[in-house]
Design goal:
With 208 residues, the chain is mainly alpha-helical. It has six helices and two strands. It has a two-stranded antiparallel ribbon. Helix 5 runs antiparallel to helix 6.
Length: 208
């Protein structure tokens, strides 16, 4: 009788609270409880294959990046680049000569001893090429024998350029003097920064 009385009290208490609690719907395996975010479970072998494919692709990209970044320039490429730079310096000097001389109407001449020497296109081109070849040869020698050849070569090239400005001081006119200094300046502006960069070597970089 006591047990029946206890069960009767529990039933009355549940009815007062509003009845039995609703059972929760069963949760499906592999499906999220959030209806807006449904996720499908993949088999273990498919997940493992995706991981192997992703790791393989990452290794391939890293190896390919390492090979590209670590590839140095060969001697043929360096020679072609520096040859084009020397030719470009001589061509730039010829452009300045044409603008000052034939187009500008200035007689570009210098006094050499007791005579006057006129500066033509051939002299300008030959001087520019010789200056470029001399700088190229000195830089190549420094690269074979010095630890920091480019810095030393740049300092020497800048000093040589400043000293070369003494030549135009013997020009016969102010226009000729300005034209000759402009030629020296354009040749130096092309050769000094470009020749060292043309032989640059790509450093090895690790891809993280």
């Amino acid at each position: 009788m006591a047990s029946l009385h206890v069960q009767f009290d529990r039933s009355v208490h549940r009815l007062r609270l509003g009845g039995h609690p609703r059972p929760r719907p069963p949760t499906k395996v592999g499906v999220s409880r959030d209806p807006g975010r449904t996720r499908r479970r993949l088999p273990d072998d498919a997940v493992g294959q995706q991981r192997r494919d992703s790791h393989g692709m990452t290794d391939f990209v890293e190896q390919d990046s390492m090979s590209i970044s670590a590839a140095p320039l060969d001697r043929g490429q360096v020679r072609v680049r520096r040859g084009l730079i020397v030719a470009g310096a001589a061509g730039a000097a010829l452009v300045v000569w044409a603008l000052v001389g034939p187009i500008g109407g200035t007689d570009i001449a210098v006094q050499s001893g007791g005579s006057v020497r006129h500066i033509g296109a051939t002299a300008v081109a030959v001087t520019g090429i010789l200056a470029g070849l001399a700088g190229w040869g000195l830089l190549a020698a420094f690269e074979r024998t010095m630890k920091r050849p480019r810095r030393t070569w740049t300092v020497i090239a800048a000093v040589v350029f400043v000293l070369s400005l003494a030549g135009p001081l013997g020009a016969t006119s102010a226009g000729a003097k300005a034209g000759l200094m402009s030629m020296h300046l354009i040749v130096a502006a092309v050769l000094i920064p470009s020749l060292p960069r043309a032989g640059g070597r790509a450093r090895r970089r690790s891809v993280s």
